[in-house]
Specification:
It contains no helices and 4 strands. By secondary structure, the protein is an all-beta fold.
Length: 55
């Protein structure tokens, strides 16, 4: 499962997911998901791998 938020590495605040996919084109391993920190405004991009889809 792709988390809606992660902890910011720089400040410890919450980074919220800013990447969304249409229902007819879901994410796949290798796609990039972006997060933006609500405290320091840093952006974090993460590449999805198969582990992100394993339940």
């Amino acid at each position: 499962m792709i988390p809606d938020r992660i902890v910011c590495v720089d400040c410890g605040g919450w980074c919220h997911r800013i990447t969304h996919w249409p229902e007819d084109d879901p994410p796949v391993p290798g796609d990039t998901v972006a997060y933006r920190c609500s405290d320091c405004s840093d952006r974090w991009d993460m590449v999805l791998d198969q582990e992100d889809f394993d339940d």
